[in-house]
Structure formats: C-alpha cells, structure tokens
UniProtKB/TrEMBL annotation:
Keywords: Cell membrane, Lipid biosynthesis, Lipid metabolism, Membrane, Nucleotidyltransferase, Phospholipid biosynthesis, Phospholipid metabolism, Transferase, Transmembrane, Transmembrane helix. It is an enzyme of class 2 (transferase). This is Phosphatidate cytidylyltransferase. Belongs to the CDS family. It is a multi-pass membrane protein. The keyword Nucleotidyltransferase applies. Its EC number is 2.7.7.41. It holds the Pfam family CTP_transf_1. It is found in: Cell membrane. The keyword Transmembrane helix applies. It catalyses: a 1,2-diacyl-sn-glycero-3-phosphate + CTP + H(+) = a CDP-1,2-diacyl-sn-glycerol + diphosphate.
Length: 264
C-alpha cells in the first residue's frame, strides 16, 4: 500500500512526541532535583544544537559551551540572589556569541531565550506548583496536534510560506481553538481568572511563533534540522521550539499577572 505523503511523518511525531511528553511530565511531577536535572540537560543540549547550526565545523566548541551552560544554569538554580541571577543569565549567551565567527546577535538572542526558559520553568514550578506547567504543556501539545491534523485535512492558504511552507491558516486557527478549550478545562478545577482561555490562546500563538522562529533560523543557517540526536527526526531544539516560545511568554505573563498557586 502506498503511503499518503500528507501523513508520512505522523508515526515519528507520535512516537517521539509521546516519549518526550511522558519524560517531561514525569520530571515536572517529581519536581526538585529531578526537574532541575531535566531542565539543565535539555538547555545544554539545545545550546549545543544552536552552536552546531551556526558553526557546523566546531562540534568540540559546541560541547564545551553546552557543558559551560549546564554549569552556569546549575549555579543559577542553587542561588536566590537576584543580582547574581540577572548577571549569570546572560553569561552563556555572551560567551557563545563571542565564540561565533558570524551571526553573533542571532546566537545571543536564541541562546538567551533558551537559558531564560530553562531557568524560569524550574523557578515557576517551585513557585506556583505543578499544575501550571501541565497547563503549559497541554496548550503546546494541543496546538501542535490540532494544527497538524487541521493543516493536512483542511489545508488552504499558507500562514507564512516564506519561512514555514507547511504551516496553514487552518492549522494555526485550529491550534488557537484547541488552546482555548484547554484554558476552559483548567478553569474548571483551578482558581484562575476568566482570562485563562485568552491567555492560553496567547501561549498557543507564542508556541507557533517559537516553531516559526526556529524554522527561520534553520533556513538562515541552511540546515534541515538542529541536529541528528533523534534518528530521522531532528534534535531537541526541533521538538521544543514551540515550548520555548510559549514558556518565555508564560514567564512574562507571570511578571505582570497575579497567578494563583495551585498544588495537588
């Protein structure tokens, strides 16, 4: 039987997506040192992949920068001194940018976003509890799944063909609808305000923009995937680009909106 090209990547998406979702959910649920180790590992790997995209000829430098990032992030998670945290957050991005022979500003911005997200998610989980991280992941997964199926079943005009030729408006809007539904579901058992559904949609859009931003980076660097870490399916950056975008927006929202603590 001939495979439908529309669904040729569905099996890999399901297998790897489910595996990483389970691992991530377990780390979030356990919290503490377990979630910290997971966040440090994922952050370091994404910095390594980012380095490879900019400097494919320097794998050793990428590994050294990843190890340095892991050390800095571990130190960040061990201190509560605000001044030290604000200083150290920029260090891996600055050091990495100096090491790059080109695209220094591009590297700096992406690296800073990765480190801030890695540190911020751990702090967010410790401050507000596990529920809101489950909400974040649910929004990102719903956006991806509903966007994938709607885009391939409905099709239609492309969202931003110059950067991401596969994304359609139908898939984009389906992701927003799915995320709003997630927001309404979480309203049922949390004391969040009525703004949660539209905030969920905002996170959904941020997730889509994270995906598009990484697609733009790969096109700019002329690479297909961030790495070959996941056989036949790219790297962690390819899988977590949407989560990265949504996490950064969620952390910003936490600065300007009163978020109730919810714990099981």
């Amino acid at each position: 039987m001939t495979k439908n090209p529309k669904w040729e990547d569905l099996r890999d998406r399901v297998i790897y997506g489910a595996g990483m979702a389970v691992l991530g959910m377990l780390g979030i649920w356990l919290g503490g040192i377990w979630f910290q180790m997971l966040a440090v590992f994922v952050t370091a790997v994404m910095i390594w992949e980012l380095t490879l995209m900019v400097r494919l000829d320097a794998p050793t430098q990428g590994m050294l920068l990843a190890a340095f990032t892991a050390s800095v992030l571990s130190g960040l998670l061990a201190t509560e001194q605000t001044g030290l945290i604000l200083s150290l957050l920029f260090v891996p991005a600055i050091v990495g940018a100096v090491m790059m022979p080109r695209e220094r500003l591009t590297f700096f911005l992406f690296a800073l976003g990765i480190v801030v997200a890695g540190w911020g998610l751990v702090v967010f989980r410790e401050t507000y509890g596990v529920v809101w991280l489950f909400w974040l992941i649910a929004v990102v997964i719903a956006t991806d799944i509903f966007g994938y199926f709607a885009g391939r079943m409905i099709g239609g005009p492309k969202f931003w063909p110059a950067v991401s030729p596969k994304k359609t408006w139908s898939g984009t809007i389906a992701g927003w609808v799915a995320s709003a539904i997630i927001g309404f579901i979480f309203l049922g058992f949390t004391n969040a305000g009525n703004d949660l559904p539209w905030i969920s949609v905002a996170l959904s859009f941020a997730s889509q923009m994270g995906d598009i931003a990484e697609s733009a980076l790969k096109r700019r660097m002329k690479v297909k995937d961030s790495s070959t870490l996941i056989p036949g399916h790219g790297g962690l950056f390819d899988r977590f680009d949407g989560l990265l975008g949504a996490a950064l927006v969620m952390l910003f929202v936490a600065l300007v909106v009163d978020i109730p603590e919810v714990r099981f």
